[in-house]
Amino acid sequence: MEKEFHEIDSKNAWAQAFQQIRSESGNYNFTYKDARKAENKNLNRYRDVNPYDHSRVRLSKGDKDYINASFVEIPAARRAYILTQGPLPITTGHFWLMIWEQKSKAVLMLNRVIEKNTVKCHQYWPLGSHHDGEDEMVLKDVNLKVTICGEKEAENYTVRELLVSNLDSNESRMVLHFHYTTWPDFGVPESPSAFLNFLMAVRDSGALNQNVGPAVVHCSAGIGRSGTFCLVDSCLILIEESGCTDTVNVQKVLLEMRKYRMGLIQTPDQLRFSYLAIIEGAKQILADQKISEYVPSKSVYELPDGVFEEKQINNNESEKPKKNIIEAENREEVASPETSVSELNRRIAEKNDAKTEPPPLPPRNKPFSDIPIEKNFSEATEMSPKSVTSENVVSFKASEDLREVDFPREEDIVVTNNTSSLRENSITDAEIRKRRRKERLEKTAETVQKMRRKQQDSESWARRRSRDWEENSHTDSPSKHPRT
């Protein structure tokens, strides 16, 4: 497929490729008599876009069963969609009735309401009070009510939650509204990655799953942008199933889709963009498959003795994301795609052999004797050496609280250079001494800070008292109170 794309692109032959698809699909001998009936003509937005009789959606409620909408199925990809035109004012009720009857979980809107100063679609959902609109819309002709419950904006699209209520049966159902807002009419999205982000968001919602009704996809006519979306989604499913791109013929898939709705994909640019999006999406899918293919149906477990073996897991577990992180006692062994089980066993064996050797001696800390005591004191109290002055020391000695300070003892600070004596001490004793020394330093620091605050408070009080005395003395001066 990628080779085909580059061949057409190098020759700039997209117009010829598109014309060939139109010619082949023009030979289809499918009728659309119901769309041409006099009573249905005003229900079509465009007179040359009509649903085929064999694939059109039929409404079961009301005086008419007609709506300009088509079932499009790709059995090989297990995909089914409903492609339809943007609703008209007189077909908005039919549109929501179709969604209700087909039990669709989502509506994919690929156009804006107004494009190039032309109304391309009726405003068929309530805007909500946050957009100065109504929160609900009642469709009296089909006895349905649509209520907006929430809205979330992404970079290129908006997702809305719409509650559809059947006023006859009092049943309600939530429908997601995915609105792609940056796809121009007769054009293509700004980039394949932006479009793929939208597609993956739709997929993640479950709106395209087989256990729900077909998603309703529409633009203005329901053939150009809508056809592009369905073609890319279906081809990516086929690539995911086969595991390669060579088995997927994009033009053949498009021709099959055109058997259900006429005119799918309207321009050569949309055909070229479909190839680009499929190629980029396929690279992501195949890359993800390659990462996990070395453990497609097996998992690695750890046995009690630290040796690994392979065990078969059930089908449900094989569908879960593969995690290549394996715990090995107190650390993690990361298994790359090239790492075999025997290699993991060898690593564990090497670690077990290493554990039989005696542990290394703890690293020697720098002796306190190599660091000035004043520096240790200043670091413990978060003070610089310059802040420890003789004035501070005098004030400390004059304080009653200084008697509670437990200064470090000399035998705790001075460390001998005799390495043999270090080895005789156990790690537990060293840790106890270290902890006690830390506690004494912290207590000293706390006391120093406390003395500091007391001294500052005393000086502040003295300055305040002196200022008050001066003010009172000036106030009492005779010159301030002349006789009247």
Automatic annotation (TrEMBL):
Documented EC number(s): 3.1.3.48
Record field: transmembrane: none
CDD domains found in the cross-reference section: PTPc-N1_2 (cd14545)
InterPro entries in alphabetical order: NR_tyrosine_phosphatase (IPR051985), Prot-tyrosine_phosphatase-like (IPR029021), PTP_cat (IPR000242), Tyr_Pase_AS (IPR016130), Tyr_Pase_cat (IPR003595), Tyr_Pase_dom (IPR000387)
Ranges of biased composition (kind: Basic and acidic residues): 314-334, 344-356, 454-484
Localization: Endomembrane system
Keywords: Hydrolase, Membrane, Phosphoprotein, Protein phosphatase
Group of enzyme by EC: hydrolase
Tyrosine-protein phosphatase domain location: 1-281
Pfam families in the record: Y_phosphatase
SUPFAM superfamilies in alphabetical order: (Phosphotyrosine protein) phosphatases II
Main location: membrane
Region span, Disordered: 314-370, 434-484
PANTHER family documented for this protein: TYROSINE-PROTEIN PHOSPHATASE NON-RECEPTOR TYPE 61F
Protein name (Swiss-Prot/TrEMBL): protein-tyrosine-phosphatase
This protein's encoding gene: LOC106470536
